[in-house]
Amino acid sequence: MLKGTKVNIRLIGEGDLDLLRYWRNQHTNDFFTKDQLSPQQQRAWYQKYSENPTDRMFIIQLKDSTPIGTVALYNISIADRTAELGRTLLLSEYRGQGYMEEAIKLLLNHTFETMRIWKIRLSVYLDNASAIALYSKCGFESTTRPIMLMEAKNSDIDIGKPFSMSDFSEDD
Known about the structure:
Elements: E1 2-3, E2 7-11, H1 17-26, H2 39-50, E3 55-62, E4 67-77, E5 82-90, H3 99-113, E6 119-121, H4 129-137
Parallel strand pairs: 5-6
Antiparallel strand pairs: 1-2, 2-3, 3-4, 4-5
Helix pairs in contact: 1-2
């Protein structure tokens, strides 16, 4: 457990799965993937996660052990001394009080000092000004020209109907 003045962060455990799934399903718009997770999907994710040495997810908790959010370090590469920060979620009633900032700084300090990681990256939506401001306070800087993810959708398609690559034949 990493201890701060306002919050502590601890590794997730199997006992956190229901809470993680509840939070994830309540905040789908905050993540790059929007799917609702079933208990079976959450367990399958945890099984894969627990076998992956390059992925560490943490519960952010108040000093009285009340869980209030998550943060993760993943794609950890000891060879390159790099990692990615993500899966940040803070319950709305705890936002704007410095909890996430302290949790991220705790994790960064531990990662830089103990693991000797050289660089940590993250991805953030361009329109998420509060997250960008938070990450800047924690020492992150933009390293590339901003991009915008765009989509074109076919509203006339039944996405449940299978297709095959032969639908792209050159004979047409």
